[in-house]
Amino acid sequence: MFLILLWIPAFVSVPALSQAPPPPPQNIHVDKWLLMWAPASQESNITYTVEYQSFDPGKWKGVPTCIREAITSCNVAVSKAESVNGCVMLRVRAERDGLSSIPVQACSRHGHSCSPEVSLTVRPQSMTVYLSRNHSLVQEHASQVKYRVYYGKAGELLTKSLDAASSVSIPKLEEGQRYCAKVQFLYHNKPFGLESCTQCEVIPGSKPEPVQPVVIGTVVFAIFLVLFIVMAYALICHRGKIKDCLQPVCQMPHFLMECHPDSQNLSSPTEERCDILSREVGLEFQQTSSSTSAPPTSNHPDLRFGSPFIAPQCHVSSHSEDNVTSAKTM
Question: Where does the UniProt annotation place the signal sequence (predicted)?
Protein backbone atom coordinates (compact mmCIF):
# COMPACT_ATOMS: atom_id res chain seq x y z
CA MET A 1 0.00 0.00 0.00
CA PHE A 2 2.86 2.35 0.84
CA LEU A 3 4.57 1.62 -2.45
CA ILE A 4 1.39 2.42 -4.36
CA LEU A 5 1.22 5.83 -2.73
CA LEU A 6 4.82 6.54 -3.81
CA TRP A 7 4.10 5.55 -7.45
CA ILE A 8 1.07 7.85 -7.80
CA PRO A 9 3.03 11.18 -7.69
CA ALA A 10 5.50 9.79 -10.22
CA PHE A 11 2.76 9.03 -12.77
CA VAL A 12 1.07 12.36 -12.09
CA SER A 13 4.27 14.39 -12.56
CA VAL A 14 5.05 12.95 -15.99
CA PRO A 15 2.21 14.71 -17.80
CA ALA A 16 3.16 17.99 -16.10
CA LEU A 17 6.71 17.79 -17.47
CA SER A 18 5.54 16.83 -20.97
CA GLN A 19 3.25 19.88 -21.11
CA ALA A 20 6.16 22.40 -20.77
CA PRO A 21 6.58 24.42 -24.00
CA PRO A 22 9.80 23.92 -25.95
CA PRO A 23 12.55 26.58 -25.82
CA PRO A 24 12.38 29.21 -28.57
CA PRO A 25 14.82 29.15 -31.51
CA GLN A 26 17.95 31.30 -31.42
CA ASN A 27 20.04 33.45 -33.76
CA ILE A 28 17.22 34.06 -36.26
CA HIS A 29 18.38 36.12 -39.25
CA VAL A 30 17.65 36.67 -42.94
CA ASP A 31 20.15 36.59 -45.79
CA LYS A 32 18.69 37.29 -49.25
CA TRP A 33 15.19 36.05 -48.31
CA LEU A 34 16.55 32.88 -46.76
CA LEU A 35 15.51 32.70 -43.13
CA MET A 36 17.83 30.69 -40.84
CA TRP A 37 17.89 29.87 -37.12
CA ALA A 38 19.51 27.60 -34.56
CA PRO A 39 17.53 25.15 -32.39
CA ALA A 40 17.67 25.71 -28.63
CA SER A 41 17.12 22.01 -27.89
CA GLN A 42 18.35 18.78 -29.40
CA GLU A 43 14.99 17.05 -29.00
CA SER A 44 13.92 15.27 -32.15
CA ASN A 45 10.16 15.86 -31.81
CA ILE A 46 10.35 19.69 -32.05
CA THR A 47 9.03 21.39 -35.17
CA TYR A 48 9.15 25.04 -36.28
CA THR A 49 6.67 27.40 -37.87
CA VAL A 50 7.58 30.57 -39.78
CA GLU A 51 5.16 33.52 -39.87
CA TYR A 52 5.20 36.85 -41.65
CA GLN A 53 3.40 40.17 -41.27
CA SER A 54 3.06 42.85 -43.89
CA PHE A 55 1.80 46.35 -43.08
CA ASP A 56 -1.20 45.32 -40.96
CA PRO A 57 -0.07 45.14 -37.33
CA GLY A 58 -1.16 42.10 -35.30
CA LYS A 59 -1.97 39.93 -38.33
CA TRP A 60 0.60 37.15 -38.68
CA LYS A 61 0.34 34.54 -41.41
CA GLY A 62 2.23 31.31 -41.78
CA VAL A 63 4.57 30.70 -44.68
CA PRO A 64 2.91 27.74 -46.49
CA THR A 65 6.10 25.73 -46.96
CA CYS A 66 7.37 26.25 -43.39
CA ILE A 67 4.56 25.24 -41.00
CA ARG A 68 5.37 22.65 -38.31
CA GLU A 69 8.45 21.42 -40.11
CA ALA A 70 11.56 19.95 -38.51
CA ILE A 71 13.83 22.37 -40.33
CA THR A 72 16.28 25.17 -39.46
CA SER A 73 15.85 27.34 -42.58
CA CYS A 74 13.05 28.57 -44.81
CA ASN A 75 12.77 30.41 -48.11
CA VAL A 76 10.41 33.32 -47.43
CA ALA A 77 10.45 34.89 -50.91
CA VAL A 78 6.81 33.87 -51.41
CA SER A 79 5.79 36.42 -48.77
CA LYS A 80 6.82 39.34 -50.97
CA ALA A 81 3.64 39.06 -53.05
CA GLU A 82 1.41 40.00 -50.12
CA SER A 83 3.59 42.80 -48.75
CA VAL A 84 3.98 46.53 -49.34
CA ASN A 85 7.11 47.20 -51.37
CA GLY A 86 8.06 43.54 -50.82
CA CYS A 87 8.81 44.16 -47.12
CA VAL A 88 7.55 41.94 -44.32
CA MET A 89 8.38 41.16 -40.70
CA LEU A 90 9.27 37.54 -39.96
CA ARG A 91 9.24 35.42 -36.83
CA VAL A 92 9.79 31.75 -35.87
CA ARG A 93 8.33 29.64 -33.06
CA ALA A 94 9.06 26.12 -31.88
CA GLU A 95 6.28 23.55 -31.32
CA ARG A 96 6.04 20.24 -29.53
CA ASP A 97 2.91 18.19 -28.79
CA GLY A 98 0.66 21.14 -29.56
CA LEU A 99 2.61 23.55 -27.32
CA SER A 100 4.38 26.54 -28.82
CA SER A 101 7.32 28.60 -27.61
CA ILE A 102 7.47 32.37 -27.56
CA PRO A 103 7.86 33.60 -31.17
CA VAL A 104 11.14 35.35 -31.93
CA GLN A 105 11.41 37.94 -34.68
CA ALA A 106 14.07 37.69 -37.34
CA CYS A 107 16.61 40.39 -38.13
CA SER A 108 18.77 41.37 -41.07
CA ARG A 109 22.47 40.91 -40.39
CA HIS A 110 24.09 42.19 -43.59
CA GLY A 111 21.54 44.71 -44.76
CA HIS A 112 18.36 44.08 -46.68
CA SER A 113 16.00 45.91 -49.01
CA CYS A 114 13.56 46.13 -46.10
CA SER A 115 16.06 46.65 -43.27
CA PRO A 116 18.21 49.69 -42.36
CA GLU A 117 21.98 49.71 -42.78
CA VAL A 118 23.39 50.41 -39.32
CA SER A 119 26.83 51.02 -37.82
CA LEU A 120 27.85 52.08 -34.31
CA THR A 121 30.59 54.34 -32.98
CA VAL A 122 31.23 55.06 -29.33
CA ARG A 123 32.76 57.89 -27.34
CA PRO A 124 33.01 58.55 -23.62
CA GLN A 125 29.43 58.62 -22.25
CA SER A 126 27.78 58.40 -25.69
CA MET A 127 27.02 56.09 -28.62
CA THR A 128 26.21 57.20 -32.16
CA VAL A 129 23.96 55.11 -34.42
CA TYR A 130 24.80 55.85 -38.05
CA LEU A 131 21.96 55.25 -40.53
CA SER A 132 22.44 55.22 -44.27
CA ARG A 133 20.18 57.51 -46.30
CA ASN A 134 21.15 55.79 -49.57
CA HIS A 135 18.70 52.99 -48.93
CA SER A 136 16.25 52.33 -51.78
CA LEU A 137 13.26 52.51 -49.45
CA VAL A 138 14.38 55.88 -48.08
CA GLN A 139 14.95 57.33 -51.53
CA GLU A 140 11.53 56.20 -52.68
CA HIS A 141 9.57 57.33 -49.61
CA ALA A 142 11.83 59.95 -48.08
CA SER A 143 9.15 62.01 -46.36
CA GLN A 144 7.22 59.02 -44.96
CA VAL A 145 10.15 56.87 -43.80
CA LYS A 146 11.90 57.28 -40.45
CA TYR A 147 13.87 55.09 -38.08
CA ARG A 148 13.11 53.64 -34.67
CA VAL A 149 16.23 52.97 -32.63
CA TYR A 150 16.03 50.46 -29.75
CA TYR A 151 18.89 50.50 -27.27
CA GLY A 152 19.93 49.34 -23.80
CA LYS A 153 22.59 47.48 -21.85
CA ALA A 154 23.79 44.13 -23.12
CA GLY A 155 21.90 41.19 -21.65
CA GLU A 156 18.76 43.26 -21.08
CA LEU A 157 15.69 43.75 -23.23
CA LEU A 158 16.03 46.75 -25.51
CA THR A 159 12.98 48.54 -24.17
CA LYS A 160 14.23 52.11 -24.67
CA SER A 161 13.64 53.61 -28.09
CA LEU A 162 13.69 56.89 -29.95
CA ASP A 163 12.54 57.91 -33.43
CA ALA A 164 14.79 59.84 -35.80
CA ALA A 165 15.00 60.86 -39.45
CA SER A 166 18.77 60.29 -39.66
CA SER A 167 21.75 59.25 -37.59
CA VAL A 168 21.32 59.79 -33.86
CA SER A 169 23.61 60.07 -30.83
CA ILE A 170 22.58 58.56 -27.48
CA PRO A 171 24.09 60.53 -24.54
CA LYS A 172 24.56 59.93 -20.79
CA LEU A 173 25.74 56.32 -21.03
CA GLU A 174 27.87 54.65 -18.35
CA GLU A 175 31.55 54.33 -19.17
CA GLY A 176 32.89 50.79 -19.25
CA GLN A 177 29.43 49.30 -19.84
CA ARG A 178 28.41 47.37 -22.98
CA TYR A 179 25.42 48.87 -24.82
CA CYS A 180 23.45 47.41 -27.71
CA ALA A 181 21.17 48.84 -30.38
CA LYS A 182 18.93 47.72 -33.24
CA VAL A 183 16.94 49.75 -35.78
CA GLN A 184 13.69 49.29 -37.70
CA PHE A 185 12.01 51.35 -40.38
CA LEU A 186 8.90 53.40 -39.63
CA TYR A 187 6.50 53.87 -42.51
CA HIS A 188 3.80 56.41 -41.67
CA ASN A 189 4.95 56.08 -38.04
CA LYS A 190 4.34 52.30 -37.99
CA PRO A 191 7.01 49.55 -37.73
CA PHE A 192 7.84 48.31 -41.19
CA GLY A 193 10.14 45.60 -42.53
CA LEU A 194 12.86 43.67 -40.75
CA GLU A 195 14.82 44.93 -37.80
CA SER A 196 18.58 45.16 -38.06
CA CYS A 197 20.38 42.58 -35.98
CA THR A 198 21.51 43.75 -32.57
CA GLN A 199 24.97 45.34 -32.42
CA CYS A 200 26.88 46.04 -29.19
CA GLU A 201 29.83 48.22 -28.21
CA VAL A 202 31.65 49.08 -24.96
CA ILE A 203 31.55 52.72 -23.90
CA PRO A 204 35.18 53.86 -23.42
CA GLY A 205 36.43 55.88 -20.48
CA SER A 206 37.40 59.51 -20.64
CA LYS A 207 41.00 60.34 -21.52
CA PRO A 208 42.89 63.58 -20.79
CA GLU A 209 42.85 65.83 -23.78
CA PRO A 210 46.28 66.39 -25.34
CA VAL A 211 47.73 69.87 -25.28
CA GLN A 212 46.86 71.58 -28.50
CA PRO A 213 49.71 72.86 -30.72
CA VAL A 214 48.18 76.34 -30.64
CA VAL A 215 48.62 76.50 -26.86
CA ILE A 216 52.24 75.35 -27.11
CA GLY A 217 52.99 77.91 -29.81
CA THR A 218 51.44 80.70 -27.75
CA VAL A 219 53.52 79.81 -24.68
CA VAL A 220 56.77 79.67 -26.69
CA PHE A 221 56.01 83.01 -28.33
CA ALA A 222 55.30 84.61 -24.94
CA ILE A 223 58.62 83.34 -23.53
CA PHE A 224 60.60 84.73 -26.48
CA LEU A 225 58.77 88.05 -26.22
CA VAL A 226 59.64 88.42 -22.53
CA LEU A 227 63.29 87.57 -23.21
CA PHE A 228 63.44 90.13 -26.01
CA ILE A 229 61.99 92.88 -23.79
CA VAL A 230 64.46 92.10 -20.96
CA MET A 231 67.45 92.12 -23.32
CA ALA A 232 66.33 95.37 -24.97
CA TYR A 233 65.93 97.06 -21.57
CA ALA A 234 69.36 95.91 -20.43
CA LEU A 235 71.10 97.10 -23.60
CA ILE A 236 69.43 100.51 -23.56
CA CYS A 237 69.44 101.38 -19.84
CA HIS A 238 72.57 99.57 -18.64
CA ARG A 239 74.83 99.76 -21.65
CA GLY A 240 77.70 101.36 -19.69
CA LYS A 241 77.72 98.72 -17.00
CA ILE A 242 77.59 95.95 -19.56
CA LYS A 243 80.50 97.55 -21.46
CA ASP A 244 82.59 97.80 -18.29
CA CYS A 245 81.90 94.19 -17.43
CA LEU A 246 82.86 93.01 -20.90
CA GLN A 247 86.04 95.21 -21.21
CA PRO A 248 89.26 93.20 -20.49
CA VAL A 249 91.67 94.31 -17.71
CA CYS A 250 94.77 96.22 -19.02
CA GLN A 251 97.91 94.76 -17.42
CA MET A 252 101.57 94.86 -18.51
CA PRO A 253 102.95 91.44 -19.45
CA HIS A 254 105.27 89.83 -16.91
CA PHE A 255 108.23 89.42 -19.31
CA LEU A 256 108.42 93.19 -19.82
CA MET A 257 108.47 93.75 -16.06
CA GLU A 258 111.39 91.32 -15.72
CA CYS A 259 113.50 93.05 -18.44
CA HIS A 260 113.05 96.57 -16.98
CA PRO A 261 112.75 96.36 -13.21
CA ASP A 262 112.97 100.19 -12.95
CA SER A 263 110.47 100.76 -15.65
CA GLN A 264 108.32 102.83 -13.33
CA ASN A 265 111.20 105.43 -12.91
CA LEU A 266 111.99 105.69 -16.61
CA SER A 267 111.25 108.96 -18.35
CA SER A 268 110.47 109.48 -21.96
CA PRO A 269 113.36 109.78 -24.49
CA THR A 270 112.56 113.45 -25.09
CA GLU A 271 112.82 114.20 -21.40
CA GLU A 272 116.18 112.38 -21.12
CA ARG A 273 117.63 114.25 -24.08
CA CYS A 274 116.49 117.53 -22.61
CA ASP A 275 118.26 116.70 -19.36
CA ILE A 276 121.57 115.91 -21.08
CA LEU A 277 121.60 119.05 -23.21
CA SER A 278 120.77 121.33 -20.32
CA ARG A 279 123.56 119.81 -18.30
CA GLU A 280 126.16 120.26 -21.05
CA VAL A 281 125.10 123.81 -21.85
CA GLY A 282 125.30 124.75 -18.22
CA LEU A 283 128.83 123.41 -17.86
CA GLU A 284 130.07 125.17 -20.99
CA PHE A 285 128.54 128.40 -19.82
CA GLN A 286 130.32 128.20 -16.50
CA GLN A 287 133.66 127.52 -18.17
CA THR A 288 133.29 130.43 -20.55
CA SER A 289 132.34 132.82 -17.78
CA SER A 290 135.37 131.91 -15.66
CA SER A 291 137.87 132.31 -18.53
CA THR A 292 136.71 135.66 -19.81
CA SER A 293 135.96 137.12 -16.34
CA ALA A 294 133.50 139.42 -18.02
CA PRO A 295 131.38 141.35 -15.60
CA PRO A 296 127.91 140.02 -15.54
CA THR A 297 125.18 142.28 -16.76
CA SER A 298 122.88 140.85 -14.21
CA ASN A 299 122.91 138.94 -10.99
CA HIS A 300 121.53 135.92 -12.78
CA PRO A 301 124.23 133.27 -13.28
CA ASP A 302 123.03 132.35 -16.75
CA LEU A 303 123.36 135.82 -18.39
CA ARG A 304 125.75 136.04 -21.36
CA PHE A 305 126.79 138.99 -23.60
CA GLY A 306 124.19 141.12 -21.99
CA SER A 307 121.29 138.95 -23.13
CA PRO A 308 119.63 136.55 -20.80
CA PHE A 309 120.00 132.88 -21.50
CA ILE A 310 117.63 130.78 -19.56
CA ALA A 311 118.49 127.14 -19.38
CA PRO A 312 115.62 124.79 -20.12
CA GLN A 313 113.81 123.91 -16.97
CA CYS A 314 113.76 120.22 -17.50
CA HIS A 315 113.59 117.49 -14.96
CA VAL A 316 116.91 115.72 -14.72
CA SER A 317 116.38 112.16 -13.85
CA SER A 318 118.87 110.07 -11.99
CA HIS A 319 119.24 107.81 -14.96
CA SER A 320 120.21 110.74 -17.25
CA GLU A 321 122.86 111.99 -14.80
CA ASP A 322 124.45 108.61 -14.69
CA ASN A 323 124.65 108.58 -18.48
CA VAL A 324 126.40 111.98 -18.57
CA THR A 325 128.91 111.00 -15.87
CA SER A 326 129.81 107.85 -17.65
CA ALA A 327 130.27 109.78 -20.91
CA LYS A 328 132.70 112.26 -19.36
CA THR A 329 134.69 109.55 -17.72
CA MET A 330 135.27 107.98 -21.05
Answer: 1-18
